Amino acid sequence: MDAPGTATPFSTLIRTASHQQHTEAETSTFMGDLLGGRLGVDAYTRYTEQLWFVYRALEDGAESLRSDPAAGPFIRSELMRSTELERDLAHLRGPGWREGLAPLPATAAYAERVAECARTWPAGYIAHHYTRYLGDLSGGQIIRDKAEKTWGFARKGDGVRFYVFEEIANPAAFKRGYRELLDAVDADDLEKQRIIDECKRAFALNTAVFRELGEVFPLSA
Ligand code: HEM
């Protein structure tokens, strides 16, 4: 057992535990093709649609968790992405963007797991919150830059608003604050381990969505 004060911070544990899966997600065929400029805007649109289903589950679930001792501190209105995704989709699909919109099976499974955690296991919801929002604040900015250049969206404009956190002036500082919240999470060691396991599951759920998107948009078709 670690002496008091020397235990590895939870924010470090969760980052280290998901590091390998992060690399897998980052280097998935679909992401590589998308960010390599080898796919059309239809693939980017389809990807954005999947995000909408996931964020709807994350953010529909958020309201009831505001007063939860574990998940409550993480619920911050400046992170919310549903409105931005809807503006992006209106730009990408037109005003009737909702018509015919359906999640891929992997997306439906991902959104269902997020909703289940929000309903029944707030600490597990933190794993999903971390996996998405901290990623969006980090690599999301790389994706935005590529998307603007590849498909000609206005800088930080319609089509890439999902990646623009208007109310977070200093993402690096925000991420530091977020890691402090993780380090102070109201959970014992066993529960922290379960959160880490759920984070790995969250990454796997993302990778499964990329896999299905890769099947819909194969380069060699
Ligand atoms: C091509 C796609 C991606 C790129 C280029 C990318 C890039 C990055 C970079 C550069 C960081 C480090 C930021 C820092 O040290 O402050 C980061 C962090 C992160 N990314 Fe990604 N990423 C990608 C995909 C993903 C995906 C698909 C997920 C999960 C859904 C994800 C989740 C995260 C998380 C949770 C962090 C924060 C790690 C931590 O500091 O605790 N990323 N990403």
UniProtKB/TrEMBL annotation:
PANTHER family: HEME OXYGENASE. Keywords: Heme, Iron, Metal-binding. InterPro entries: Haem_Oase, Haem_Oase-like, Haem_Oase-like_multi-hlx. This is Biliverdin-producing heme oxygenase. CDD domains: HemeO (cd19165). SUPFAM superfamilies: Heme oxygenase-like. Residues 8-26 have a biased composition (Polar residues). One of its GO terms (molecular function) is metal ion binding. Residues 1-26 are annotated as: Disordered. GO terms for biological process: heme catabolic process; heme oxidation; response to oxidative stress. Heme b binds at R15, H22, Y130, R179. The keyword ATP-binding does not apply. It comes from Streptomyces finlayi. Signal peptide: none annotated.
